[in-house]
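Checklist before submission:
- one chain only
- standard amino acids only
- sequence pasted in full

Submission:
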Amino acid sequence: MRWWSLLLVAGSLMAADWKAGVAKVDITPEGPIWMAGYAARKHPSEGVLARLYAKALAVEDGRKGRGVVVTTDIIGYPRSVSEEIAVGVLKRYGLERGQLVLNASHTHSGPVVWPNLSGMYPMNAEQKAKVEAFTRRLVEQVVDVVGAALGKMEKAKVEQDQSMATFAMHRRRITAEGVKLARNPEGPKDHLVPVIKVRNAKGEVGAVLFGYSCHNTTMTGEFYQLNGDYAGYAQAEIEARRPGVTALFATACAGDQNPEPRSSLELAERHGKALGEAVLAVLERKGEELKGSIKGRYQQIELPFEPFGQNDFEKELSSTNPYARGRAEAMLKAIAERRIPRQLSYPIQAIRLGQAEIVTLGGEVVVEYCLRLRRETGNPKLFVMAYSNDVMCYIPTRKQVEEGGYEARESFIYYGQPAPLAGEAEDVLVGKVKALLKGVK
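Returned file contents:
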């Protein structure tokens, strides 16, 4: 047999070794519970518009390389919760931290996940207890759904593909009075929809993982019924039109992107259908089959805050903003107890699925990071998942830090961080991600 024939046989065997499994679990809480995302809400939920899910996609390459992506209809995973899940998954299934992705859809119509943004919600003791009980159960359910996906592994072909959706719009507008949260059709955006398809031995699609860079906030603060917003409706659209397919949505760099138009159930369903149809459009065509090895690495890096001191918080005690006063009290106590953070501990992750590259980033990452990482890595197919493993604050660009505005400054009050990120954090983050990607080559 000639050498090129050997290579073809080897490539075929490498692809045939791949296996995949998928599982889902209903995480919808029973009864009223405080909802996440909007400080304007004044009471717990009033029923359920659509069920909420955690879904897991497990893939292995036949040579001990494997990875699991969990997508979840929640506001975000606080670090304490993601670490508890990671420990449980390691103990029960031997899955290392770099092999596990925990992504949140960032729906603002799901329950609070304790302690994410805990200072923003005026909950009483009973309401807080319900949120804490939901969070404990969520940890158990996510660990279980990872095991269920691993237990369903079977021979599979995995492909990468791309589609497009167009309802995301930049939401930062520079005015004479400063940066406002407002529609900005001229601002940067990312309409790419990365797609990972899983086919069984018969060639039938059984699972699809897809992403989009848009805040999951079609349903605004006046709505009190639990649902997954456009991301939940997109997954439901795919699964309804393709019985037997499990659809998993991963939020990309959505920090400064809003769905437009918004503020009604009809619009959430419309955006969900549009995104679902974008995925369905590429579901049957043959994508690029992924071959070779699966590798993953996870790292906690440090991002610099702007300088701050005790005087800043003493002044903030007289603020007219109650959340700023609460932040000041917490920071002064932390300073007195010598536990004030001077840098932000931040999770990054790089996963290689054959030729496909996935990057995960913590926090509410603005869209320019997706665009810059694809540009500087030279990989237009790079799948960037933000809102992963920890949602601790916004991650603005250097330019946005200089401009100011909600994402760059005010939001850090609500997240209870001591100060905004410094402008140089952008280059630190991008440099560390590029280095981590080299480690999974």
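Reviewer check: The two ends are 30 Å apart (CA to CA).
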